[in-house]
Each structure stands twice: as structure tokens, then as C-alpha cells.
Specification:
The protein is 33% helix and 25% strand. It is α/β, with parallel strands linked by helices and 269 residues long. The chain has a domain of 145 residues: P-loop containing nucleotide triphosphate hydrolases (Rossmann fold, 3-Layer(aba) Sandwich). The strands form two sheets. A six-stranded mixed sheet has the order 6-7-8-3-9-10, sandwiched between helices. Strands 2-1-4-5 form a four-stranded antiparallel sheet, with helices on one face. It comes from Sphingomonas desiccabilis. One of its GO terms (molecular function) is ATP binding. Belongs to the ABC transporter superfamily.
Length: 269
């Protein structure tokens, strides 16, 4: 974590309590099968995973192991073939305002301004117009885009567009934020900066977050736990708990030891 991030008020945070009553997300024996060329292909095999309220968890594994499929099932865009996804104790049967998904591509509407893109995420939220605009302004300030509220996506850098997408994902106050490689398309300098920014935003909002990434160091910098998945069919190979207080430093020897442990698991996939 950079000194600049500390100056912005980021506070060290430890892993949340293991109290099962605080579990906001449960994947219970989840399996997923697709049909390819009229033949069944098993993408996921018995995924058991729980996220506690306010926790930040990263999913990591080889391409095709089902990481994005897990996010889509939590978001209600896919249904499990077997097992159950529960949010707040209730089965997920479709999309809902309690979950928000941010993709690798920002997917902002090119004909709408930044503030209009964020406002559209409140379309189904039962709030008055003034309150919606207040929330939009609040979340643009949170991601540092107040001065670009009336800019259009084509006028933004890649990092700014992703910050706008994160503001859109958070503006409806979801219980769970799902991030599908949101920093994967960025250059290394912008990516490093946005890792710090993402942690600052998470600390400010306290939203339970599940993120897919291919970057082991990124996962260890951000997450309370890193879930390593086997190749297809995806299974939970190991869950690595990152018991290091934040802010974390990229050159920390303890972080390097954890990185070698996770890389060792990935090399054996």
C-alpha cells in the first residue's frame, strides 16, 4: 500500500469474525454443467464457500476453471445445475438489487455522461429523484470522479472508466459486490494505483466483496482470503487466509511467502 493511500485515510483492517451468523453469502454444494456440441461439460463440481459480512475474498485459478461462472450464479444470471446459492439466507433465483457485478470492461453507455451512467443503476430503486442524485454525487466523490460527472466515457482513461463502473456497482448499496477481473485490462501502473483505490473504497463502504483475478500478488494485497480453484471441473483446492493487517506492502516478506504458497498450488493444477 502506498504512502498516498495511507494519507487518504485508509485504516488497517483485520479478517472479520468467524461468527456464522454474519455469513451473507453461501454456496452450498454448487455444481454447474453446460451443453457443448450436444454433450454435457461439467464446469463446477461441488463448490462450498461462505463469505462473512464485510469480507473481501478473491477467486484465483486457471482459465476455464469456472471463476466467472461462480460470479454469474451469485448475480442470478446463471442457475446452478445442483446445489444452492444463498444471499442473506435466501436462495438466489435471479438478479437482485442486493448484488452488483462489475466486469473487466467498464460497459458504460457511450451516449450517457458518467453521472447518468451511475444514475441508471438506481432505476429500479424506490427512492425519490433528489435522493438518487445525492447518492450519485456521493459515489462519484467516493471514486474521485466529481470533476468528471458530466464527461462521457470516451473522454475517460481506462482507470477512470473502471472507477465509474465501481461507483455504478455500489450506488444502490448492494449487500455483495462482485468483481470480474475489473483491473485486468489496465497497464501495470494504473492497476497498482487502482488496487489501492479499490481497498480505500471497500474500507469506506464495508461492502462484502468477491473478486476474480489472475494476479496472485493482487489477490494477496486485497483479500482476507484467497480461494484457489482446480481446473475444470472447478473445485475449491485450497483457501489461503491472509492474516496480515492492512495496509499491506508489496515487498513484505510474509506476503512473498504466501505468494509462493499460492503459486505452488497453481503450478500443480
Amino acid at each position: 500500500m502506498t504512502h498516498a493511500a495511507e494519507q487518504r485515510g485508509f485504516r488497517p483492517r483485520l479478517v472479520p469474525s468467524a461468527d456464522p451468523e454474519s455469513e451473507v453469502l453461501v454456496l452450498d454444494g454448487v455444481e454447474k454443467e453446460f451443453t457443448v456440441d450436444r454433450r454435457p461439460v461439467q464446469a463446477l463440481a461441488r463448490i462450498d464457500l461462505q463469505l462473512r459480512r464485510g469480507e473481501f475474498v478473491c477467486l484465483i485459478g486457471a482459465s476455464g476453471c469456472g471463476k466467472s461462472t461462480i460470479l454469474r450464479m451469485i448475480a442470478g444470471l446463471e442457475r446452478p445445475t445442483a446445489g444452492e446459492v444463498r444471499v442473506g439466507g435466501r436462495p438466489v433465483t435471479g438478479p437482485g438489487l442486493d448484488r452488483s457485478l462489475v466486469f473487466q470492461e467498464h460497459r458504460l453507455l457511450p451516449w450517457a455522461s458518467v453521472e447518468q451512467n451511475v444514475y441508471l443503476a438506481l432505476d429500479a430503486v424506490p427512492l425519490g429523484r433528489a435522493e438518487k442524485w445525492r447518492r450519485v454525487a456521493e459515489h462519484l466523490a467516493l471514486v474521485g470522479l466529481t470533476d468528471f460527472a458530466r464527461a462521457y466515457p470516451a473522454q475517460l482513461s481506462g482507470g477512470m472508466a473502471q472507477r465509474a463502473a465501481i461507483a455504478r456497482g455500489l450506488v444502490a448499496n448492494p449487500a455483495i459486490l462482485l468483481l470480474d477481473e475489473p483491473l485486468g485490462a489496465l497497464d501495470s501502473l494504473t492497476r497498482s494505483y487502482l488496487q489501492d483505490e479499490l481497498l480505500r473504497i471497500w474500507e469506506a463502504e464495508g461492502t462484502t466483496t468477491l473478486m476474480v483475478t489472475h494476479d496472485v500478488e493482487e489477490a494477496l494485497l486485497l483479500a482476507d482470503r484467497v480461494v484457489v480453484l482446480d481446473p475444470r471441473p472447478g473445485r475449491v483446492r485450497e483457501i489461503v487466509r491472509v492474516d496480515l493487517p492492512r495496509p499491506r506492502r508489496r515487498g513484505d516478506p510474509e506476503l512473498a511467502t504466501l505468494k509462493e504458497r499460492v503459486l505452488g498450488e497453481l503450478r500443480h493444477l
